[in-house]
Write a structure and sequence with these properties.
Layout (H helix, E strand, L loop, with lengths): L3 E9 L3 E6 L2 E6 L13 E10 L3 E7 L2 H11 L6 H8 L4 H9 L3 H4 L7 H11 L14 E2 L10 H12 L4 H12 L1 E2 L3 H13 L2
Parallel strand pairs: 3-5
Antiparallel strand pairs: 1-2, 1-4, 2-3, 4-5, 6-7
């Protein structure tokens, strides 16, 4: 069982990264691939290895240990699989997630792809007493003076593709695309974080 990988980020795709460790490239599925930069060296990715008869061995990776633990909590919930857990974690806002679970906020939880009312209730039932508040800062972005300046931004384009990969419908992605074009984000990761906030807000 792998606990973590430390190596060079060889590639970043819309739903996974490749971590090169001593000449071996590991395909690692992560909540938000664009948190990682191609070419970054000595990067530690915490991993959870899941083996299934119909899929084989899959490595799920996380930027820190807390995120990995949260993933393990989520997939322990009845009816929540790895894909749904990754979509929930992709926001990067652990504090908001923990708060929603502890405050029985079904509206927040059902904003995520694949999470209906029944699944949200199950998450709250099984995790409310197992999680402690966290104080991770929320993303802030500044409004750009000329919205058209980022209309064709490769970072924005990649972010919209990543949101679709996470399970959001074309309709939802198109709905928030205009708002994202009004924002100044410095990377695909920034756009994804902001997009997820827009998609999950009331």
């Amino acid at each position: 069982m792998y606990e973590f990988l430390t190596g060079t980020i060889d590639a970043v795709h819309t739903d996974y990264i490749v971590v090169a460790v001593q000449g071996i490239g590991y395909k690692v599925i992560v909540p938000n691939p664009y948190r990682f930069a191609v070419g970054a060296k000595d990067v530690t990715v915490y991993v959870d290895q899941i083996i299934r008869d119909n899929i084989g061995i899959t490595l799920y990776g996380f930027a820190d240990l807390d995120e990995k633990v949260m993933f393990q909590h989520l997939i322990s919930v009845t009816g929540i699989g790895p894909k749904s857990a990754l979509a929930i974690l992709a926001t990067g806002d652990a504090a908001a997630l923990v708060q929603a679970i502890q405050e029985n906020d079904l509206k927040y939880l059902t904003k995520f792809p694949g999470i209906g009312k029944k699944s949200a209730q199950q998450i709250i039932l099984q995790l409310a007493d197992r999680l402690t508040p966290t104080g991770k800062p929320a993303l802030t972005v500044k409004t750009v003076a000329d919205p058209d300046a980022v209309n064709n931004s490769p970072a924005l384009r990649d972010a919209l593709a990543a949101l679709r990969t996470l399970g959001y419908s074309d309709k939802d992605v198109v709905r928030i695309a205009k708002a994202l074009r009004q924002e100044e984000a410095h990377s695909t990761d920034d756009y994804i974080r902001l997009g997820l906030k827009l998609l999950t807000q009331p």
